[in-house]
Amino acid sequence: MDVTHPTDPVFADNPVHNRKPMPIYSLVFGRIFGDGLVTSHGHKWKMDRAAITPSFHFDALKGYAEIMNKQCDVMVDILSKVPHGEVCESASGILLLCAFDIIMETALGVEMKGQTEGNEFTDIFQFFTEGGTERFVCTVFIA
User: Fold this and answer.
1) Do 75 and 100 touch, CB atoms closer than 8 A?
2) CA distance 83 to 74
3) 112 and 135: one domain?
4) Which residue has the higher pLDDT, 85 or 140?
């Protein structure tokens, strides 16, 4: 069978390719993100998943591999400078800045060098990601 579209029968009817998100996502993330791909169920989830699947096809991502590898090499270089046996307190921040550099270069074509140089954009990004984490914890676990 030649599969050319995510709505082809092999995808639509095969439970391996047709998993619903875990119910905990709806409880935890539904309050924050609403009814999206992660939190929706049934027909809406199938339609959203079918629409986004081609974006993550290997051929669509192949052009970004060089950028991802370059930015990951920068991250590995930064992490390799942490002395052996010591805990890296800012590993999540380093990972977020790597993701930021990848997103900015692949989506906008702008090399931000947030991991190595930092600038006002990386400061704003870190402010909102830290604030978003705090908001998430307060909304889900305290409210």
Assistant:
1) no
2) 17
3) yes
4) 85
Mutual orientation of helices 91-103 and 65-80 as an angle, nearest 10°? 160
Q: Which two tokens stand for residue 86?
A: 């010591």
- 3-state SS, the chain, equals CCCCCCCCHHHHCCCCCCCCCCHHHHHHHHHHHCCCCCCCCHHHHHHHHHHHHHHHCHHHHHCCHHHHHHHHHHHHHHHHCCCCCCCCCCHHHHHHHHHHHHHHHHHHCCCCCCCCCCCHHHHHHHHHHHHHHHHHHHHHHHC
Residue with tokens 């050319």: 4
pLDDT in tens, 60-106: 788 899 999 999 999 999 988 888 777 666 777 888 899 999 999 99
Residues 45 and 90 in one domain: no
Structural domain including 34 reads: 9-56
